[in-house]
Amino acid sequence: MNINVKIFVLIVMLCISMYTPSTTAQAGKYNANAVDDLYNFYAESRGVNWKNTDKYKGSWHANGIKEHYQNSLYKYSGPTSTYTAKHAPLAVEKGKFTYFIINGQQEEYPYTPRQAAASYNTSHKISPISMMVGKYDNVTGTLYPPTTVHVKSTTDSHDNASINVDSDGFLYVFVSGRSGVRGGLIYKSNSANSIESFKLVYSGKHSIETLDLDCDPNYAPNGWELCRNEYRGFTYPQAWWTGNKFVLLHTIYLPLTYDDPAANPSYMRATYISTVTPTSGGVTVSSPSKLVAVKGDYTKGHYSISKEKNGTIGLAFNLHVDDETTWKGKAVAPHDSRTNLYFMYSKNGNDWFNIKGEEVASGMLDRGTSNRGITKPSQLSSIAVKEYHNPVTGETNETTWCDDRHAVLGKSSPSKYVCRRVYLKDIDFTIDAQGKPNRVEILYVANRSVEYSTINNVSKEFGPYPSPEIAENDIYLARAFYNKDNALGWQTERVKDASGKDVVDHNYSSGTLTIVDGASYIITPASQERDGYAGQRQVKVLKNTTGAKGSWNEVYSKYSVPLTAGKTANYVRSVHNSTSKFRVLWSEGLADVDADGGEEVKVYLGDLTNKKLLLPNTGTLPINGKYVPFN
Predict the structure, then answer these.
(1) How far apart are CA 205 and CA 184, in angstroms?
(2) Are 161 and 198 in contact (CB under 8 A)?
(3) Residues 190-212: what's their mean pLDDT?
(4) Are the C-beta atoms of residues 155 and 128 closer than 8 Å to each other?
(5) What per-residue confidence (pLDDT) applies to 557?
(6) Residue 469: left if φ>0, alpha if ψ -120 to 50, beta else—which one?
(7) Contact of 527 with 495, CB cutoff 8 Å
(8) DSSP 1
């Protein structure tokens, strides 16, 4: 590290020490324990008994600053209590109860200036994230007040939590970390089938040197020691109970190597796998193994989603690639250059197979095998659902869809441009008697990624970013599906509403997909207008009775009248293992607001019809619960 960088770091550390109350917390990437990560606890209140509330109040988040569409739009903004599609599950049914996590706000933990440094956006005085567990009795219709499990000094919704339950009825809350800044945490209920109280049972982190054996600890471009003395916890927790343990799929941010030694550090997203085994005192967590981390000449990581059915885990992921598309004269970051679609499954978390039943990765839970997963572009073809872009050559596989757009922008050779971007939303599947998937469906949003619009006779690039002027046929909701009884293999389709219109107009409009009694259901935000905001003013239920291509019917709308302009509903999430009325939950609030408490975010529960239940965000919810029906 050169002397100028060292002086800068010392100044930053001095400023933090003057601003922060007495604490051992510091920048998370240098800590071996997430308990010590700065902003991972509200006002660094570690070891406290969190105060409860009798209301369900949601949270709001804006990503970055308003730098899109004439500096009028965030990359995405709006209600985020049920964000993201990569946190799973957010609700789980066990016996007659459904347990769910609300990543919201509460009056006991107001906004403090400290949290601004931990958030993307510092202009919104929003209360920090309170992870609250709720319980609903599906037999009696009784809703219970939430229990506060954890509070952070950040409004960054990437730090949201997921929830699941073991075979004995103990609940576990998996609190996401964020990149190298904050590590993940695991809480466990003190009693089975109870949300009354929880205890912190895990806060461990692991060094980059042990997580990524491909990372050279001596590599230090511009003085940044990317692979030495850095630690990571888990991000985007996806926890699935299989046998006597949870299989925890999660993201870890790994350093990228630069050709330009003057570049600032950047990190790729990689999927790791761990086991979380209950013990009498808490849990035992295994060292993470690298399941999918594709780093090549053109490939720079990915995002993944997953689901579990009777012990079988299905995993879908996209691919982040180098892209010659520019935005405002700058290269688009690899994590925004996401494309392609892949699928694999496992019956134990240890060995993984493609849809044909061919083994593609083995020994993932055996110690010392952290590099046995999918790490090379050449391994991807055997698990491909749809490859819009060639991961080996870095060239697009599209032949016509983007040519006209590139021509308008004066780009003579579109072969190295990402033509179609893929944003994962949900996955569901059924299995045969041997635990092998025999029907798989993946929900995603795709868009033509080099967008333009003429404003004052000047062509403008939008890249993968939002705009109310993106043409309707350039962004759409899609389903990839496989049925072993169909000789066509993997198929894809655009999903449209009853009028034949594309359903979404934003990459971050997020719905859910579930298979019930042979029928496929999509519950999703649905466009009323092209406004450039994530989510929409209506939530629609689409049904396909057989799962066949193009057989969708719009059967219900969740709102009898669409929300008023300026409001949005988003991040519809499914209930894991649900057999009751309570099937989904979602967030509702203002699409764009200086959310200072004047407008509260609401959270709804819903079924597969037009019925819904608003979680009470005002008044008092008695400790013994209250009858709250779906209407």
Answers:
(1) 8
(2) no
(3) 94
(4) yes
(5) 95
(6) alpha
(7) no
(8) -
DSSP letter, residue 231:
E
| Phi, psi (deg, nearest 5) at residue 384 | -70, 135
Per-residue pLDDT band for 471 (boundaries 50, 70, 90) equals confident
Residue pair 530/505 in contact (Cβ under 8 Å)? The answer is yes
Q: Counting runs of H as helices and runs of E as strands, what totals does the chain give?
A: 3, 41
CA distance 253 to 266: 9
pLDDT, position 18: 29
Cα-to-chain-centroid distance, residue 151: 19
pLDDT at 11 over 50: no
The residues, ordered by sequence, that sit 6+ positions from 617 with a Cβ below 8 Å of its Cβ are 55, 56, 57, 58, 600, 602, 603
Alpha carbon distance 527, 524 (integer Å): 10
Place of tokens 């290269």: 331
* pLDDT tens string 320-353: 998 888 787 778 888 899 999 999 999 999 999 9
The CA distance from 523 to 631, in Å, is 17
Main-chain phi, psi angles of 222, to 5 degrees: 60, 25
CB contact at 8 A, 610 and 625: no
Tokens of 315: 């995993």
Rg (Cα) of the chain, in Å, rounded? 23
**63-94: b (≥16 Cβ within 10 Å) or e:** beebebbeeebbbbbbbbbbbbbbbbbbbbbb
Which is nearest to 492 in space by CA: 482, 483, 502? 482
DSSP code of 203? -
Per DSSP, helices labelled H in 93-142 are none
The predicted pLDDT at position 222 comes to 66
- Token pair recorded at residue 519: 């029928």
Taking alpha carbons only, the member of 599, 527, 591 closest to residue 562 is 527
* End-to-end C-alpha distance for the chain, whole angstroms: 62
Q: How many residues are recorded in the chain? A: 631
User: Which amino acid would we find at residue 385?
Assistant: V
Comparing 320 with 14, which gets the higher pLDDT?
Answer: 320
Q: Say how far apart CA 286 and CA 306 lie, in whole Å.
A: 20
- Alpha-carbon distance of 478 to 316, in angstroms, equals 14
Interatomic CA distance for residues 495 and 347, integer angstroms: 30
**Integer Cα distance of 149 and 283 in angstroms:** 17
What are the residues whose beta carbons fall under 8 Å from the beta carbon of 570, sequence distance 6 or more? 78, 79, 80, 82, 83, 508, 509, 510, 525, 534, 535, 536, 586, 587, 588
- The CA distance from 288 to 278, in Å, is 17
What DSSP designation does 380 have? Answer: G
Taking the C-alpha atoms of residue 296 and residue 438, their distance in angstroms, rounded to an integer, is 32
Helix (H, G, I), strand (E, B) or coil at 209: helix
CA–CA dist 374, 339 (Å, integer) = 17
What would the DSSP string read from start to end of 241-270?
Answer: EETTEEEEEEEEEEEPP-SSTTSPP-EEEE
Contact 62, 71 (CB under 8 A): no
| pLDDT given for residue 217 in this prediction | 75
Asked if 32 and 46 count as a contact pair (C-beta separation under 8 A), the reply is no
> Model pTM?
0.93
pLDDT recorded at residue 455: 60
